[in-house]
Amino acid sequence: MTEKTFPDEQKLIDDADTLKRTLNRLSKLLIEAAKVVKRVQTETSADVAEALLMVQAGVTPEDARLLKAIGELVENDDGLLANGVSPETLRVLFAASGADRAEAIRTIKAGLPVGQAKMKHLENHRSWIEKGAAQVALDARSARLESMATRNVHALLRDLESGVDELRSAAAQFANYFGPGDPQEGFEMKTNRAGYFKAHADITTKAAAALNLFELVLGRDDASGPKDSEASKLEQSHRALERFSSGCFGHKGGFALNVDAADIFSWEIIDALDYICTQSAPEEEPSRLIARPPRNLRVLELGAGAGGQAIGLMSAGFEHVALYERIRKRANTLKANWPTWPVRCADLRTVPDAELARHHGVDLLAGGISSAMVSRQSEKDKRGKEDDLVPEFLRAVRVIQPRSFMIESTRGFSFESHVSYLAEFKASLTELGYTVETYRLDMKLFGLPRNDERIVLVGIRQGEPGTFLPPTLRNPIARYVRETLEDLVIRHETPVDLMHSVKSGTPQWHYNNWAYRWRSRTNASRITTISREWKETRVARQKDPKVEVTEGFDRSGFAAAPPSVEDFQKENDYFLPKLTHEIAARAQGFPKRWVFEAIGGGNIDMIADAMPPVLAKAVGLQIYSALTGVTFDLDAALTAPIVNEKQIGIGALRLNGGRESARTMNQVEILIRSGSAIAGEPTAKKRLAKFRSLLEEMEPNHMRRTSLVKTLHRIQWERELQAMEDQAWTDHRFPNGIPEGTLED
Asked: Strand locations in 443-568, DSSP E?
């Protein structure tokens, strides 16, 4: 070894010694952490301890179990960590069985490192010794035979899929050709057509062969009790094969799963075959990021408030099946802004389980907990009172069993006075069969002029293939008080080109100076918590007295309107403006045209409780991804408008609304334009016959005609409604009739 290389080698040796000492210190710290975990788990129940460690310390259940195992190992063997042990060795020991763990501990104490590879060697060695050479040979033989059998099963499964493909195609052609052409004809099959009974027999033969293969490969699942979605689909496929193979379809039972219904238009037993047909990958790349949800999922919202969460979830691709709200003024706010929402004004505590059960299995259960329940002043005495929806959310999740849920509240839920209640809540939700996570959403990262957070609990039902990922933007959106709220605060400033005409010392001149100073001081300021009415004192709302100055607002109360020129009568009359409910709503992210159907503090309370729409959309998109596998470009999705401002006050009642295909709309247009010709027929019977003839000509596939007729009726109604609205507007503009020469004439 040369002198030149010796110092580098010595440095490596020194680094290795440093690492060894560090591992020794780490071992001691891990022992201390294990003792803390043991104390927490001893002083409360296992579920609450797990949730508390997760919420307050960021310790996952796996971490807690590892630390507990370390503590138990050290208690049983004081010398285990004497020389320091790497984190990987601890992980391997934690995962090992009793006998293997004991052998690994002996190996560690002997001075040999133990990793995953070494542990595998120890396991194989122990198994080889315990089983003996003869048993090892038998196991190898069994593994070989099972491998060969698996290959044969795969081949049989391909044959089953191919056979069901042929059966499904034949059944669909049979239903299309021999089924009734119009719902008015009833549900009788056209057995008088040539080839009916031969086609019926061919389908029965194909189904019998497919059923034999099904039961050979997959067996007969006669187990009772609850099933997951995949097991239910497989069971329905089996029932469909049994129906077809028995001949009880068509004229002997229709195509519904329930033979008594005999409803050919359901196509239930035909569609049930899809699960065992040949499957192909979707055309679109699953990992491709998109900005807009391709279809709607269902959401039930409890404690909907002013609609902040509802707007965001609607924008994230969720369609409301119902919105429950206890306070009448808040329910009126929801209806006034989006009339097509199914709003129900009711106290959740009075809503029976049977009513909630109507929404069993809904895609998302959403709701919020009032800030009054989790403020800095509220203590345990608030629990169980009217503002506490925690028990109702637990009941709703238990009864409805949604695929997912999201429950949000202000950051007060993480205060020391409430963190144990949050941990108990999370533990109870986990017991109901959900993977539950708690997230803090920082408002300033999502384009809001706020230095505040919202707490959200997200749960995904165990068994769902996806998982929830926190909404994180590649490029956070930074906005401040001035750029976001300036137009609502400064309403009366003189335009720049007229500034020279304002006399010095006048109220307008003082107002202009005040506006300039306020604007310059709020370039980089944000608002903290929006308190509820005047129920919290200034000291309670803010610990730092300088916060008011940095926010740009006087937080001692609220004003009905922003400062006016009359408020400035003397020089240096600078003061901080108070928040109005319009300013608070904008800061919370509500659209400009969103109205609040309360007065004074009622509006402020409503706004303070509301989840900012952009945060609800961000969380909603990630839940959508967890349920469907569709991924989003969050940066693009969250910079787009949350809602079409023109629809506020009207809702989804738009002509067609882009919901129908161009082909369907062309068919509907032809039917509408033929209305006068149909009306010209002398009798109702002839008018109906002409309409049916035209409908059959427009849509050869009778299975689609029912849907086409429904679309026709809906669009006719929408156009009539639009015509009435137009006429009402014309009457309003011209109460004495339309003057000659106008465009309306």
From this structure: 453-461, 554-558
Number of independent structural domains in the chain: 5
Point out which residues pair with 441 in neighbouring strands: 454
Query: Is residue 206 very low, low, confident or very high in pLDDT (cuts 50, 70, 90)?
Result: very high
The number of helix segments (H) and strand segments (E) in the chain equals 26, 9
pLDDT score for 399:
93
Q: Which domain holds residue 551?
A: 481-524+531-587
Mean of pLDDT values over 185-203: 80
Indicate whether 592 belongs to any domain. no
Say if residues 469 and 547 touch (Cβ distance below 8 Å): no
Tokens of 618: 């961000």
Q: Are strands 297-302 and 578-579 parallel, antiparallel or unpaired?
A: unpaired
Q: Are 306 and 368 in contact (CB under 8 A)?
A: no
CB 274 within 8 A of CB 168: yes
Check which CATH number belongs to the domain holding 386 and give it. 3.40.50.150
| CB contact at 8 A, 319 and 624 | no
Q: Name, in order, each residue with C-beta under 8 angstroms of 468's C-beta and a sequence gap of 6 or more.
A: 404, 435, 437, 458, 460, 622, 623, 626
Residue 205's CB: how many other CB atoms inside 10 A? 13
Q: Among all chains, which residue has been given the structure tokens 């109604």?
A: 717
- Residue 232: inside a domain: yes
Q: What percent of the chain has pLDDT over 90?
A: 12
What SS3 string covers 646-663?
HHCCCCCCCCCCCCCCHH
Main-chain dihedrals φ then ψ at residue 41, nearest 5 degrees: -70, -25
Q: For residue 402, is pLDDT > 90?
A: yes
Answer whether residue 103 shows pLDDT above 50. Answer: yes
Which residue bears the tokens 């949000």? 408
Alpha helices by DSSP H, listed for 44-115, are 46-57, 61-76, 87-95, 98-109
Distance separating alpha carbons of residues 50 and 48, to the nearest angstrom: 5
Same domain, 365 and 334: yes
Greatest Cα-to-Cα distance within the chain, rounded to the nearest angstrom: 115
> Which 3 state secondary structure label does DSSP give 386?
coil
Same domain, 488 and 537: yes
Residues 449 and 301 in one domain: yes
Beta bridge partners of 434: 461
For residue 324, pLDDT over 90 is answered with yes
Helices (H), 674-741: 675-679, 684-698, 705-733
| Per-residue confidence (pLDDT) for residue 413, from 0 to 100 | 59
pLDDT at 379 over 80: no
* Residue 186, C-beta contacts closer than 8 angstroms, at least 6 positions apart: 180
Dihedral of alpha carbons 117, 118, 124, 127, sign: negative
∠ CA 385-386-389, rounded to 5°: 90
Give 450's strand partners.
Answer: 527
Q: What is the pTM of this model?
A: 0.59
pLDDT at residue 530 greater than cutoff 90: no
Q: Indicate whether 5 belongs to any domain.
A: no
| Residues found in the chain | 745
Distance CA 136, CA 121 (A): 15
